[in-house]
From TrEMBL:
<dbReference type="GO" id="GO:0016020">
    <property type="term" value="C:membrane"/>
</dbReference>
<keyword id="KW-0813">Transport</keyword>
<feature type="transmembrane region" description="Helical">
    <location>
        <begin position="61"/>
        <end position="78"/>
    </location>
</feature>
<dbReference type="InterPro" id="IPR044492">
    <property type="entry name" value="P_typ_ATPase_HD_dom"/>
</dbReference>
<dbReference type="InterPro" id="IPR059000">
    <property type="entry name" value="ATPase_P-type_domA"/>
</dbReference>
<dbReference type="InterPro" id="IPR008250">
    <property type="entry name" value="ATPase_P-typ_transduc_dom_A_sf"/>
</dbReference>
<dbReference type="InterPro" id="IPR004014">
    <property type="entry name" value="ATPase_P-typ_cation-transptr_N"/>
</dbReference>
<keyword id="KW-0812">Transmembrane</keyword>
<dbReference type="InterPro" id="IPR018303">
    <property type="entry name" value="ATPase_P-typ_P_site"/>
</dbReference>
<dbReference type="GO" id="GO:0005524">
    <property type="term" value="F:ATP binding"/>
</dbReference>
<dbReference type="Pfam" id="PF13246">
    <property type="entry name" value="Cation_ATPase"/>
</dbReference>
<keyword id="KW-1133">Transmembrane helix</keyword>
<dbReference type="GO" id="GO:0016887">
    <property type="term" value="F:ATP hydrolysis activity"/>
</dbReference>
<dbReference type="Pfam" id="PF00690">
    <property type="entry name" value="Cation_ATPase_N"/>
</dbReference>
<dbReference type="Pfam" id="PF00689">
    <property type="entry name" value="Cation_ATPase_C"/>
</dbReference>
<keyword id="KW-0547">Nucleotide-binding</keyword>
<keyword id="KW-0067">ATP-binding</keyword>
Length: 818
């Protein structure tokens, strides 16, 4: 069923002839299984090892070497005798080719491993309604039309249309498909826009994603290869590996070399026909064989046998250098390809930004009701360290000196289900829960408590205790009595807390929703409560808009004091009941937060620009937020007009093919995109002659990573993304890519130098053998001697060139032409 998200639940059920209560009958299940097959990703047989080995011998230089080895072997047999040295030549050449084939085969298996890893995201079982009975079946046995029930922790077994939600909120973690860490709140209402991207299809559940909160019933609409994860599987399997720039140049060189060798060898043999009958050869046939051996020697001299070994050594050395820069290379050729990179398509979340949401603004109404008090919060990670300042002046013990800030801390500490953890080995702070709530939790620890003595002892406790010390202070004084979960219709969540005196409701949510239900507001730092008038509401609404333009996510914080007398408290069970409780509230203030840019990214992007490398930002986030981040990191200037340089996925879809190509050449930002957009963008850039590096971390990124010239996966990403990529960033940092490109350019330059050295040496050998052969003189060098010169005498100095340090201006030149 296509576009199920545009249908109402009743329309979707009618399409399959099923009801939510009874589900499919056994007869309907059998019919659907014959029509749609199993709910499983296609399992193509693995490529036979012999086929992978044969693929390694299709290179032009390899074919020439194979031909040379074969002729040498035949001549050695024909010559007879007990001298084993005659077989050294073909044996050495075959050894080199076998070693290269082993390296190549190991790289070829990466695509199949990525496909196999997709299976990990398939659910094992599903709770289904059939013939009016609820039962558990294997997820493979699901068919379109089945009614399933999913709850917190479940993995979605197929693409489904949400029919009904049995909890107050129902959230899904779709990060493997969208790359965005924030869970998505689901709904049952149809979506009118048929072009809605998956992130906006809030009434759909996608195979492989996970239920974070809530419980719902859903209708299976797509199974197996037809699901969103099935599309990714198809994209990975359909990718055709493109040769690297170095590989293309070596292929061209091999084609030219084959023609030259054939011509020169034939010429040498033909020139010496007159000498075939020379008595020293023992007859015409032996003379012909003798000069054929000389022609083969000429071929061996022309072929740089040591080239493959030196290239592999150089690239392997490059992988070690990149590993020291936190870039783990999975495919040797990608080391050199990085040096030719002309475009980097980078994901925003987690690569250009920290992927650690942090509060950077605290705002409330001034005491005269005519302005706003604005505090800046330092720190851009989940580490609970950072000053609170106002107009550049630091404010210590703020919760003790400002009653309004204390109330803000009460809401952010208690209206919160997240936790911050600390890895003792790496010293990194990590989040358990929603990023938004994590940012609020960290804010509480930065601000502290109203107890100055308690705050003063913070330095004396362990680092792990500091993570939740202030939060526990508030939790002990205001124990939580009930939680009224977030719902999309009221755009808020609240908790009922109680101290020794009274009960009160603490609320957080979207500013427009909270403001509409507030009758009072806190003004000034002393916590004075006054009626909320239009002027104040307008002042706050304007601030919300201004912050939104700067890419900040705004939350409003409010409370209902002495709510214990409200009769709804005992019977509140629905989201409508919660909305009635959250009335006549007192607005306390606003907090603004964002996923901040990594501090080193701006300098790295400037360095890329000076190196002639274009950076394109690709994100599933909304356009305003993405443009703000792009201005902060230097992709756009502060006042630069982004017309024609920033597109949403839908705007890109609406362009014709010519306009898409122009957009790919000009634009620096693509927001609200899906996996297909990434693949299309890579394809267009490659058609335009660019060498493209693409970053990604989710399952959805795997096809684009595979298609790009250099796929770069994040260390914290999924196994599917890592297996599809050529390189993995251990620290998920864009600056690491820039460093790897610099190393790649150095390796590219060194590769050019030793290729020139080897070729020039071989030209000398060819000329000497050709002249002696043309003059009818005895052979100057026999094949074994030539191999020694090519592999050892020339090979070792050529390898030494691999160790050359990078030129000081290597990142101030344009990328080498692919």
């Amino acid at each position: 069923m296509e576009n199920a998200f545009t249908r109402t639940p009743a329309e979707a059920l009618k399409h399959f002839g099923v009801t939510e209560q009874k589900g499919l009958s056994e007869q309907q299940v059998q019919s659907a299984r014959q029509k749609y097959g199993k709910n499983a990703l296609p399992e193509d047989p693995p490529t036979p090892i012999w086929e992978l080995i044969l693929e390694q011998f299709k290179d032009q230089l390899v074919i020439i070497l194979l031909g040379s080895a074969a002729v040498s072997f035949v001549l050695a047999l024909f010559e007879g005798g007990d001298d084993w040295t005659a077989f050294v030549d073909p044996a050495v050449i075959l050894t080199i080719l076998i070693l290269n084939a082993v390296v190549g085969v190991s790289q070829e298996t990466s695509a199949e491993k990525a496909i196999a890893a997709l299976q990990e995201y398939s659910a094992n079982e599903a709770k289904v309604v059939r013939d009016g009975k609820i039962t558990r079946i294997k997820a493979d046995d699901l068919v379109p039309g089945d009614i399933i029930s999913v709850a917190i922790g479940d993995r979605i077994p197929a693409d489904c249309r949400v029919l009904s939600i049995q909890s107050n909120s129902f959230n899904i973690d779709q990060s493997i498909l969208t790359g965005e860490s924030e869970s998505v709140s689901k709904d049952t209402r149809p979506i009118k826009d048929e072009s809605a991207v998956k992130q906006d299809q809030i009434n759909m559940l996608f195979s492989g994603t996970t239920v974070v909160t809530g419980h719902a019933n859903a209708l299976v609409v797509l199974t197996g290869a037809n699901t969103a994860i099935g599309d990714i599987h198809e994209s990975i399997t359909s990718q055709i590996s493109q040769p690297t720039p170095l590989k293309e140049k070596l292929n061209d060189f091999g084609d030219m070399l084959a023609k030259v060798i054939t011509a020169i060898c034939a010429l040498v043999w033909l020139i010496n026909i007159r000498n075939f009958n020379d008595p020293s050869h023992g007859g015409f046939t032996k003379g012909a064989i003798y000069y054929l051996k000389i022609a083969v020697s000429l071929g061996v001299a022309a072929i740089p046998e040591g080239l493959a070994v030196v290239i592999t050594t150089c690239l392997a050395l490059g992988t070690r250098k990149m590993a020291a820069r936190n870039a783990v290379v999975r495919s040797l050729p990608s080391v050199e390809t990085l040096g030719s990179c002309s475009v980097i398509c980078s994901d925003k979340t987690g690569t250009l930004t920290t992927n650690q949401m942090s509060v950077n603004k605290i705002v409330f109404i001034t005491e005269d009701g005519k302005g706003l008090e604005e505090f800046d919060v330092e720190g851009t990670s989940f580490a609970p360290e950072g000053r609170i300042t106002i107009q550049g002046q630091s404010r210590d013990d703020l919760a003790a000196s400002s009653d309004t800030v204390r109330q803000i801390c009460e809401v952010t500490a208690l209206c919160n289900d997240s936790a911050i953890s600390l890895d003792p080995k790496s010293g990194q702070h990590a989040l358990v829960g929603e990023p938004t709530e994590g940012a609020l939790r960290v804010l509480v620890e930065k601000v502290g408590t109203p107890d100055r003595e308690f705050n003063a002892t913070r330095a004396s406790v362990s680092t792990s205790e500091r993570l939740h010390r202030a939060s526990k202070y508030y939790e002990e004084r205001y124990p939580r009595q009930a939680t009224y979960e977030f719902s999309r219709d009221r755009k808020s969540m609240s908790v009922l807390v109680q101290n020794s005196h009274s009960q009160k409701l603490l609320v957080k949510g979207a500013p427009e929703s909270i403001l509409d239900r507030c009758t009072h507001v806190i003004v000034g730092e002393n916590g004075k409560k006054v009626p909320l008038n239009k002027q104040m509401a307008g002042l706050l609404a304007k601030e919300v808009v201004d912050y939104g333009k700067k890419g900040l996510r705004i939350l409003a914080l409010a409370s209902v004091d002495d709510i214990g007398s409200n009769p709804l408290l005992k019977g509140a069970k629905t989201t409508q009941d919660y909305a009635k409780l959250e009335q006549n509230m007192t607005l306390i203030g606003l907090v603004g937060m964002l996923d901040p840019p990594r501090p080193e990214v701006r300098a790295s992007i400037a360095k890329c620009r000076s190196a002639g490398i274009r950076v394109i930002v690709i994100t599933g986030d909304n356009q305003n937020t993405a443009e703000t981040i792009c201005r902060q990191i230097g992709v756009f200037g502060q006042n630069e007009d982004t017309t024609g340089k920033s597109y949403t996925g839908r705007e890109f879809d609406d362009l014709n093919e010519t306009e898409k190509m122009e957009a790919a050449k000009r634009a620096s930002l693509f927001s609200r995109v899906e996996p297909t957009h990434k693949q299309k963008l890579v394809d267009l850039l490659q058609q335009a002659g660019e060498v493209v590096a693409m970053t990604g971390d989710g399952v959805n990124d795997a096809p684009a990573l595979k298609k790009a010239d250099i796929g770069v996966a994040m260390g914290s990403g999924t196994d599917v993304a890592k297996l599809a990529a050529d390189m993995v960033l251990v620290d998920d940092n864009f600056a690491t890519i820039e460093g790897a490109v610099e190393e790649g350019r150095s390796i590219y330059n060194n590769t050019q130098q030793f290729i020139r050295y080897l070729i020039s040496s071989n030209i000398g050998e060819v000329v000497s053998i050709f002249l002696t052969a043309a003059a009818g003189m005895p052979e100057a060098l026999i094949p074994v001697q030539l191999l020694w010169v090519n592999l050892v005498t020339d090979g070792l100095p050529a390898t030494a060139l691999s160790f050359n340090p990078p030129d000081h201006d290597v990142m101030k030149r344009r990328p080498p032409q692919a």
